[in-house]
C-alpha cells in the first residue's frame, strides 16, 4: 500500500470525533440532497401529470395556426374519424378524444357572460381529462346528441343558475352563420381553481357540431399517454399517421406536444429548480466550510511534524498530496454513506409514497393523487452528493497550498 495513503488514513483517525463529525455532516447533507432532489423531481412529474390530465393532454393534433390564434375556421376535418384512426394506431395504452372549441356569449334569465364552450365526446373525455370526475352537483354528459351542458361552479354562481336550468348561448358558426343554442344544465364542475370554474363549459360534440355548423369537423384530437417518456416517439408516429391519411391532404395539421401546449409549465419548473438550488448551494457551502475548518485545523496542529518531514527531504507537493488524500477519503466516506442512506430512503418512499399533513384532504378536493412519490434515478441520487464531494475537495485547496510556503526551521519551532 502506498506510504502516503497509509499516512493519510492514520492522520484521519488521530481525532476520531472530529473526523466523524465532519463525515456525519457530509452524510446528513448528502441524504438531505438525495431525498430533496428525488422528491422535487417526483413533484415535477406530479405537477406535469396533473396539469396535462386536467384538459390539454400530452399531445394534441390541431390546425397549424390554431394554438396561437384559436379561430373558429382553423379546424380539423373529420375529427371523430381521425380520433378513431389515432386510437387504432396507438393501441389501448393511449387515451384519445376529439373536441371542438367555440367562444360564445352564455345567458341565463338574469345575466350574460362570455365563455369558452368545449364540445367533447362523453364516452372518451373522462380518459383524457379530470373534469368529468369533478362534478359537484348533478352528473356528467352521457349522450352525444343531447342538448345538455356542464359548467363551472363560479360560472353557475355568476349566471345564477343550477342543475336543471336552461342556458342560452350565442356565437358564430364555422361558415360564418349565426349560431345559437339552448342547453339544459345537467352538472356543475368544481375544480377548486377560480379561473377554470369561472369559464369551463362542456357540451356533447355531436350536438356542438350541429349548432355551430361544423359538419364532421372539430378543433383538436387530444391524446393522453401513460408517461412523459412516450411523448417523443408518439409524436413521430402521429406525424406518420397524418402523412398516410389521404383525406387530410391540404388540411395543414400539426402534432403539438405538451411543451408547446403548456409553455408556462416548463418555465415554472425551471424557476422552482433555480430557487431550490439556491438553498441547496447554501447547504453545500456550509459543508464545504466545515471541511475547510477540519483540514485547516489538522494542518496547523501538524506544523512541527510537517517541518520535520520537510527537513528530511519530503517535498511540499507530497505534503499537499497527503492533505488532499485525507480530504478525498473523508469526502468519499461522506458521499458513500449519504448515497446509500439517501438512496434507500428515496427508493422506499418511491413505492410507499410521501405526504404532508392535510395533503389527503386537498387531494380529494382537487381530484389529485393522495401521496407524492420521489423519482429515483442515477441523476437524483448522485447529482447532489457529487457536488458536495467536489466542494469538499475544493475546500481542501487552501490548507494544502499553505504547505508550499512552510519553512522547515520555522515549522519545527512552532508551538
Task: Annotate the secondary structure layout.
Elements: H1 3-12, H2 16-56, E1 59-63, H3 66-69, H4 79-90, E2 95-107, E3 112-120, H5 122-128, E4 135-138, E5 148-152, H6 153-159, E6 166-172, E7 178-189, H7 194-197, E8 200-204, H8 205-211, E9 220-224, H9 231-243, E10 253-257, H10 258-261, H11 263-301, H12 303-311, H13 316-352, H14 359-366, H15 378-395, H16 397-402, H17 408-412
Helix pairs in contact: 1-13, 2-11, 2-13, 2-15, 4-9, 11-15, 13-15
Give a written overview of the molecule:
By secondary structure, the chain is an alpha+beta fold. Helices cover about 55% and strands about 15% of the residues. Helix 4 crosses helix 9. The chain is elongated, with a radius of gyration of 32 Å.
Helix content: 55-70%
Query: How many domains, in number, for the residues?
Result: 2
Give the overall pLDDT as a whole number: 86
The strand order across the widest sheet is 2-3-8-5-7-6
Number of E-state strands: 10
Q: Could you give the order of the helices and strands?
A: HHEHHEEHEEHEEHEHEHEHHHHHHHH
Structural class: alpha+beta
Radius of gyration: 32 Å
Major sheet attributes = 6 strands, mixed, barrel
Dominant shape: elongated
Amino acid at each position: 500500500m502506498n506510504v502516503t495513503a497509509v499516512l493519510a488514513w492514520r492522520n484521519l483517525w488521530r481525532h476520531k470525533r472530529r473526523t466523524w463529525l465532519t463525515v456525519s455532516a457530509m452524510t446528513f447533507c448528502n441524504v438531505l440532497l438525495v431525498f430533496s432532489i428525488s422528491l422535487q423531481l417526483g413533484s415535477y412529474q406530479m405537477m406535469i401529470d396533473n396539469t396535462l390530465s386536467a384538459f390539454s393532454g400530452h399531445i394534441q393534433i390541431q390546425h397549424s395556426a390554431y394554438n396561437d390564434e384559436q379561430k373558429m375556421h382553423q379546424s380539423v376535418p373529420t375529427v371523430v374519424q381521425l380520433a378513431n384512426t389515432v386510437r387504432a394506431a396507438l393501441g389501448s395504452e393511449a387515451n384519445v378524444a376529439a373536441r371542438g372549441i367555440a367562444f360564445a356569449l352564455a345567458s341565463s334569465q338574469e345575466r350574460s357572460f362570455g365563455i369558452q364552450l368545449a364540445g367533447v365526446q362523453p364516452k372518451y373525455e373522462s380518459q383524457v381529462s379530470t373534469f368529468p370526475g369533478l362534478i359537484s352537483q348533478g352528473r356528467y354528459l352521457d349522450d352525444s346528441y343531447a342538448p345538455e351542458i356542464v359548467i363551472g361552479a363560479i360560472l353557475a354562481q355568476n349566471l345564477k343558475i343550477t342543475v336543471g336550468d336552461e342556458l342560452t348561448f350565442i356565437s358564430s358558426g364555422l361558415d360564418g352563420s349565426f349560431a345559437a343554442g339552448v342547453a339544459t344544465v345537467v352538472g356543475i364542475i368544481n375544480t377548486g381553481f377560480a379561473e377554470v370554474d369561472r369559464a369551463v363549459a362542456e357540451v356533447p360534440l355531436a350536438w356542438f357540431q350541429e349548432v355551430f355548423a361544423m359538419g364532421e369537423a372539430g378543433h383538436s384530437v387530444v391524446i393522453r399517454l401513460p408517461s412523459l417518456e412516450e411523448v417523443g416517439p408518439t409524436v413521430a408516429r402521429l406525424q406518420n399517421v397524418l402523412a398516410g391519411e389521404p383525406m387530410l391532404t391540404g388540411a395543414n395539421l400539426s402534432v403539438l406536444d405538451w411543451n408547446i401546449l403548456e409553455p408556462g409549465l416548463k418555465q415554472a419548473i425551471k424557476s422552482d429548480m433555480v430557487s431550490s438550488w439556491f438553498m441547496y448551494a447554501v447547504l453545500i457551502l456550509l459543508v464545504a466550510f466545515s471541511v475547510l475548518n477540519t483540514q485547516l485545523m489538522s494542518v496547523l496542529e501538524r506544523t512541527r511534524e510537517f517541518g520535520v518531514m520537510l527537513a528530511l527531504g519530503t517535498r511540499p507537493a507530497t505534503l499537499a498530496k497527503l492533505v488532499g488524500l485525507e480530504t478525498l477519503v473523508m469526502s468519499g466516506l461522506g458521499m458513500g454513506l449519504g448515497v446509500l442512506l439517501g438512496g434507500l430512503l428515496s427508493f422506499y418512499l418511491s413505492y410507499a409514497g410521501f405526504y404532508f399533513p392535510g395533503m389527503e384532504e386537498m387531494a380529494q378536493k382537487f381530484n389529485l393523487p393522495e401521496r407524492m412519490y420521489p423519482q429515483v434515478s442515477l441523476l437524483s441520487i448522485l447529482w447532489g452528493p457529487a457536488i458536495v464531494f467536489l466542494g469538499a475537495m475544493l475546500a481542501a485547496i487552501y490548507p494544502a497550498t499553505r504547505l508550499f510556503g512552510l519553512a522547515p526551521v520555522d515549522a519545527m519551532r512552532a508551538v
